[in-house]
Amino acid sequence: MTTKLRLLSSLLILMALTVAGQADSTKTINMSSQSAEIFAKDSTVRQENSPTDITSDRGLYILTKDGNMQLRILGSVRFSVLYDFVDLPVKNAFNTYYIPIGDERKGVPSFNSTLGQSRIGFEVTRKVKDQNVFVRLETDFAGVNDAYRIRHAYGQMGRFLVGQTWSLFSNVSSLPATVDPNGPTGSVTLRTPQIRYSGTTKKGDRWAVALEYSQPDLDNQELDTVGLSTVQVVPDFTARIERAGYLGAVQLSLVASTLSLIDTEDNVSYKFGIGGSLSGSIDFSKDHKLLYQITYGQSISRFITTFSGTGKDAIYNPATGDFDALSSFGGFLSYGKDWKEDLVSNFSVGYADLSNRSYEPDTNYNESMSISVDTFWEIIDGARLGVEYAWGRRWNLDGRGGNASRLWALFYYDF
């Protein structure tokens, strides 16, 4: 039995034991004089969780006898089933970049299922003098070909954070709950290795700055044509500021990026990129809210999920023998409605665009959009069923377009 199957079997056994119990006890404490809830509330750590992440009331909590350290063991078994009305090459997200056009279209629909979104993680909080040290490790199986991979692996003490987690250029609190783990078209949901420093202004606004690592994203065939390769010599610089108000929250994020190109003689040349993102939420009432993200920049397309892995940070110019920066735009609006305490829906419209160069072929991507509807039902405490219908359209430079749609269901149990 492979390592992945052993781990999934363990997750299923733990889930069965939890469901089989008379009470759905989600916390175990090995000493009666302490409380995991109080320990968590005393923490200075601010966790950033997306809408479908494992919530803080799930998991097995264990405290040491001296009450100075807390261990949380958490996990989630997630089964995803999808049906493409037009076969799409990418199954782990509804990516409008890959919608086929013309002769590329396949008339045969396709079915796919996976357990790749299943997760397991550990969180440790230790009291050191007058503050807490927090360490988080979370993994899943959503790598290439359902490979085991790290989602989060970082430590935080006071104002400092070191490790891999959400980029400061992301804002997962402005994302709607979607079956698609990448969110609507045009979203920013990147996790990066980083060194971060955070603070709060006198008015209560939160701010943070960081040095982050993100691999430059250029077309490998174009790089091979001129004998170049990419490496990050200078880390990305990111910054953000958040303000919470009566009607919701707003975040402004900035990134300054450097693309480093190395030739066959180890000479390094640099291309520079910069971008900004505005995101947040507007809370009309307890049951109605509007979520939004708007992102624009040059040589930062890898931060936008629609373009991640497509090699569109810059494009090769055959006339100059050099790479030219590409500007990219992405954004979405999502309206959320809570029908009942255990039933919620989101209606989202997303858009993504590349500012193409005149020498590009007419068959290259120009822009795309999507419309999606997601509904999540909490069946029992910890178990949810999500259903999504997404429709998207892509346009090439020559104006030709193609449509695609997907029906997607996700069942998961967080323990």
Main CATH class: Mainly Beta
How helical, in percent, are the residues?
A: under 10%
Arithmetic mean of pLDDT? 87
How many β-strand stretches? 21
Rg value: 22 Å
Query: Quick one: overall form?
Result: globular
Question: If helices are DSSP runs of H or I spanning 4 or more residues, what is the number of helices?
Answer: 3
CATH domain topology: Porin
End-to-end Cα distance, whole Å, is 24 Å
Largest sheet: 16 strands, antiparallel, barrel
Summarize the structure.
With 415 residues, the protein is mostly beta strands. The chain has helices spanning 3-20, 36-42, 220-225; strands at 60-63, 69-84, 110-114, 119-128, 131-140, 149-157, 160-166, 191-200, 206-212, 229-231, 236-245, 248-262, 268-283, 288-298, 314-317, 322-325, 327-340, 343-355, 365-380, 383-396, 401-414. The strands form 2 sheets. Strands 2-4-5-6-7-8-9-11-12-13-14-17-18-19-20-21 form a 16-stranded antiparallel barrel.
